[in-house]
């Protein structure tokens, strides 16, 4: 998986071309076999064909956006920077008191005030990534990354559904459902 500099798009771990090939074969079969779509083409009903193709293209666009958009991964560097600042602030000879003081300081840093709530919120620390997790952040077992507003890891997208791609995922699901219903209707 590679991230670009801005961190907005990434390549899924194992992109499956067989899924896309199956979609292309199915679409070709719809156009060639005796379906309402083929009849509309023969009769010159371009509006019917255009609407179906537009729905297909929009579904594909939102599928790829959901696949390729960063779901809201937390940066891995966050922990490394904090670890360096803790080690620089403590003396070079560490004792039990220094470790206790560092852990108390870390706990104090984990207490943050939310913008909406005046009460302090204790941020969790991911046991695997060793970074502070904001509220509603979970660690994905498949991606081995912490994701903001983690919903689930979708095996069809080969990506997590999180804060940044959640709305595109829902639009994809709605469009895909409409496309499936229309395809069943025309066959």
UniProtKB/TrEMBL annotation:
Reaction(s) catalysed (UniProt annotation): L-cysteinyl-[protein] + hexadecanoyl-CoA = S-hexadecanoyl-L-cysteinyl-[protein] + CoA
UniProt keyword annotation of Cell wall biogenesis/degradation present: no
Region Disordered, residue ranges: 90-116
Compartmental location: Endomembrane system
Domain Palmitoyltransferase DHHC: 123-185
Protein family: Belongs to the DHHC palmitoyltransferase family.
Domain notes: The DHHC domain is required for palmitoyltransferase activity.
Protein name as annotated: Palmitoyltransferase
Organism expressing this protein natively: Stichopus japonicus (Sea cucumber)
Taxonomic lineage of the native organism: Eukaryota, Metazoa, Echinodermata, Eleutherozoa, Echinozoa
